Structures are given as structure tokens and as C-alpha cells.
Amino acid sequence: MEFGTPRKRSGGGGGVAAFIFPKGAAADPALQKPRAAPRASVAASTEKRKLLVAGALGTVALVALVVGLAAGLALKSRRASLLAGAGPSALDADYCGRLPDAAQAYCTAYITSAGSERFPAASQWHKMSSITYECSGVKTTCLDRDLKGKGAGSSCRPLAEGAACSGGGDRKCRSGVCGGLAAWEAEQQAAAKARAAQEAEARAAAAASGRASNPAPAPGPSPAPLPPSAPAPARGAGWQTFAAEVHAGSPVMRVPETFLATSHEWDRITDYADNLEAFAPIFREFGPSPILRMGGASQDFLTEPPRREIWEAMAKMHAAFSARFLIGLPLWRPDSAAIASRMMKMADEYLPKKAIVGFELGNEPEFWPTSVGGYAPQANTTFVPGFDAYASYFGRTATKLNPCGPNTSPKLSGPGWGNVNTIDAAWLATQAKAPGARCYMRELSVHYYPYVNNDTIDARGLLDQGLQDFGLSKFQWLLGVAKAVRLPMRISETNSLYGGGRAGLSDTMAGTVWCADALFAFAQAGASGFHFHWGFGGRPLLGGQPNTGVQTNFWEAGPDKGKPYPSVHAPWYGYLLFRHATAGAAGGYSDATLVSTTTRPGGCRANIKVWGLRPEGGGLRVAVLNKDMDTPCNVELTLDGDYCASEAAVSRLLPGAQGMASKDGITWRGRSYDGSPNGLLKGAPSEERVAPVPLAGADGRCTVTVPMPAASGAVVEAAWGR
């Protein structure tokens, strides 16, 4: 069989993803149309030339003069009509080309997208440049028409020059900007200040925690790191020591049975069912009954329930590997309740009850193209902006879908609020405590993406402990609301970077380490689940997005041409380390409790994390991550005497030849998916054995020393017994 491209890479997927830029990112000049020539200067020059010709050519000149005057009058008439409110005729490339630089890209993304891809494009435009979006004329009615359309272009009509902005108030549209170009400059400056304030808050959180990471290396040359593929010595020669004591008798938080999970858009879930032989082994790595969240951005722009083939694919996945589903329902459209009701009935029709975890109503409402809001109860087609209108609308819709009754139970969660770092806990509390919420609300959910500039962040910044601590502090604030109403809190969508990630960072060893670290951190913080967003998985000839753990590729030739197959990428290896550290016997459900650890960095200047776990089946596991780019250290673990009777087993996660920048060559327990198109690891598993060293006069305690190269991870397993 002739393989296609087992390791196809992509810079961020296809469709609208290719046009949407992250917060703070500069627009791609290739997508920006040049500004139109100033009509006034062109017209004036033409007029002068025509007058000169008239004076020289007599009768012909008189005709030319008349024509020129007519053209000038027509031009003045068009300008007058614009000022009078006639406005541009269409939202098109000409209109987009006149907007300020970055806004051109958001506008172009919208008009060049087709059908359902308009919704995320509109959301991104509104989020990134609301003052140009407000003058674009994109409103609920025309956006709904555009969502149903097949091709590019738009039925929306921009507001006229001088017209009141759609957001209300006294502001006027000037040159396509609400408030004019001065307002545009102010918006850009405010965004920069907001990012700077967030970064300062993150640094302050790191300083307060006393765990600021990636400190400057000690003066003098650093010892050479261990080659990634070489077996580790008993102790790294010349490496500094990082000490950690694991307190097995001090439990902190039990890891939920199905904590590690995934999130998927609706449109390509059928690809998994089209090659279950290859994809089933992938999903079985999550445990006996993995949870897949269905929805994301695609749920809110649904104009009708997902097609029958999608439900059939979900049923096949449940039959093949006991998949269970958290099903995303629409909320943005005025007819969402009717569509959602039909979806809930279809779920009951195609799936057994045990395959349905619940239903998530709405996705990231604070990032809707209309901003947060809801439809008026008296006129369900009138969208009213503001959180109060949203809360009322959510409550009415939820009650219709899941009313109180003697034979009913709460089935809903949601919405999937956009980001732990930005959502107001007061909003969450208002919604969770709303009248009737106890009848329909089964859990609360929020998304988590690091609050960074996708374009400028590097591996060192992405793995900085202060950045994670900032997100965890925000999550704890929200978790307090959940505890007050006795509901769990799920991270229903996450990844190392938003917008599909960034090639060369999300799909490298940095992404691997970020995923593993975030799993342990949010499990210990108390989240009920952690869903890595795989988006659409992949598309023919385009591959998937950089932060997708397992992309969907397609055979390009041979008898299986066009058939999907799994292409494992760097983030996936972080999942494997976490599962090994938390899983029960024979790869069962997560069956471990995180325990207390204390650390003493000593002379080690590396960014190291240590997590102690006590599995229910006995023994002790310790997960160690060296998040540093280039500094290795010896990690000396102090264990209770109950775990010192025999050698400890060490399973390693190692980068490829490029260290933290490695996309390929990454191994877990000596094995790799490189070149594997069937969802199976290649090679035989390997582990090291490390003898414990008794501590004199320490009640039987011992130390186990594990050399940790830069950009690596390990799971140490110590058996119980004296």
C-alpha cells in the first residue's frame, strides 16, 4: 500500500481558520487589499487636464469640458449621498480595503468565508475590532442569511458615513470606524494596555506564589544536557539537584475517573467512524469509556440539527470503544430552542442513555458576533445586548428544554464560557443561582486558554509558571461559585494556544509538556474534566490544527485513497504521561489521588514540577516534568518508608533531536508514533530501574534520584511494602 503523508503538517487548518488572526497579531499583508487611490486628487487632476484640452481644441474641448463637468457633478453627488446616509452598496472587498490595517483582515475573513464558517469569522471580527464591526452592518438578520448561503460575499450592508453606530450612543461611523480613526488608535492602545496589565498580574501571581519559573541560569557554563535518546545514568554528572518530598499520607485531590477528554466540532466527526480500526486504539488510550464533547463554535451557528450520518457515526464510536458524549446545543439563533429540542430527541433516538453525559447549551456567548445578550421574551426575533438579557434568555431556553418535573433530572451544562482568564464570576453566579436552575443545570463549564499573544509568545513564556498560576487563580475564583451551588466545574475546551494554536510551538515538545503540566494542575485544582479541543480533526490536503493531539489525515493514493487515518502529533505524548501516572490497573479509569509534595530547588535553576499520586491499587507514583529549555537537573525524591523496599521503575518522556522545539522523534517509554498510520505505538516499551537509598535515622524513608534532561518528563513508580 502506498502511504500518503503520515506526518502531514499544517499551519492552522483550512477554511476560516486561515483568515482569523489571534489577539494582537498583525494581519497577513497578502490578505490585505491596497487602499483605493484618493478619488478627490484623481478627479481634480483629470479636471485640470480636461480644461487644458478644451482651451486648445476648440469645439472638441467644449464637449470634453461638458463631459468632465458632468463626471465631477456625478462624483460630488455620490459623495453627498454617502454623507446623507445612502452608505456603501455592499460589504465587499472594496469596503474591506478601506478599513484600518488589521481590521481589513477580519473583514476579509468574513466576506471570503462560506456558510457556517461566517459565524466564527464574525465572532473574531467583533472580538478583535468592535468599532469597525459596529459599522459593518453585520447584524443578526443578515448574518443569519449569510450562514445559510453557499458561496462567498455577504448580504449585509455597511452603515452610511455619519450614521449612528450599531452599538448605540452618540458615536458616528467615520471611514468605516465607529468614532473615526482616532477611536481606532485609542482601541489599539487600550488593547495593548489590557495585555500589559494581564501580564503584570500574571507576574505578580508568580511572585506571590514564590514559584516564579525559568529563572536566569547561574553564572558560568551549564553542564551539557543528556542526549534525548540516550539512557539516563544513575545521576547526571555535574548536574545540580532539585529535591522533592512526597507525602503519600496527605491526600490533596482525587483525579476524576474520566478527567482527560477531548472536544470536537460537529462537521467532521464522521471521519473517526470511517476508520474505527485505526482510531479506536487512539481513543482507548483515554480509558474504558472516553468522553467527547461535541460542539464548540460549530454548535451556535447550526441552522438545523446535525445530519443523520453524524449521529450514526457517534453510535458506531460508542459501540467500538464505549465513547460517551457531551452534546453541544445552539443558543445564539432565535430558533435555538426548537433546534436544540430536536437534537436532544435525536440523541435519544441514536444513542443509548449511558452514551449521553449531558448537553452543553451555548458556546462562548461573550464572544458572539452580537456580543453577549439574548432575545426579548415578547418578540423572540429581537436581540437585546447585555448580560441581564442573556441570563433571562438562557433561563427561559433551558427551562423549555429541561423543565422541572417528578420524572426529570438536570441534563444541561453551559454555556461553555470563553476563558477562565476573562469571565466574570458574578455572571457565573447569577446564572447558576437563577430560578429553576436546580431543575436543569447539572454542572458549570468554562474554557481555558493561556492569556497570551499567540504571535509573540515563545516556549519559555508558554511554560512559565506564573502564566499557569494566573489561570489557576482565576479558576479557583470560578470554582468557588460552583461549590456554592454544589455543582462540578468542567474545563470543556482547552489547549496551549487559542485559534487552533501556532505551528512551530503548539505542535512541538513545548506543547507536549504544556499539556501534561496543565492536566495535573487543573486536576489538583478541582476541575471535573479537561477537554483538549481537536476542532475539526483534519481536512483532505490540509491536515489539522497545530495544537491537535491526533490530527486526521487522508490517504492520497492507493486502494484507500481518501480514507482517513490518525496522525499523532506532539501534544498527544503529554496525554500519555498523565494517563500512565493516573490510570488504574490495565489502563482502566483514572484511579489515583494527588498527594502533597514539598520542593527545594537547591542549586537547580530549571523549571521543574513534581506531582505525587497514590493509586488505589497500591504503590506510589511521582510525575516529574522538566519544563526548562536547556537546563538539566537531578531530581531527588524523598519517599515514605512504605515505598522503599524495592527498586523504583522510571518511564520516560523524551524529546527529539531539537529538544523543546522537536516535532518528531518524541518518545514515550522508548516508543513513538512517528510514521504510524494505524493508531499504534511502534517499538517495544522500556523503563529504567532505580535503587532507593535509605536515609539514616529517618524512620525508614529513602531517596530515589532521577536525572531529568531539559524538555523531558518521567513517571516514577514505587511499590508498597517494607
TrEMBL record:
Annotated stretches, region: Disordered: 150-171, 202-236
InterPro entries xrefs: GH, GH79_Enzymes, GlcAase_C, Glyco_hydro_b
Keywords of the record: Membrane, Transmembrane, Transmembrane helix
Transmembrane segments: 51-75
Biased composition (Pro residues): 216-231
Transmembrane helix is among the record's keywords: yes
Residues in Beta-glucuronidase C-terminal domain copies: 617-711
Bias (Low complexity): 203-215
Protein's name in the database: Beta-glucuronidase C-terminal domain-containing protein
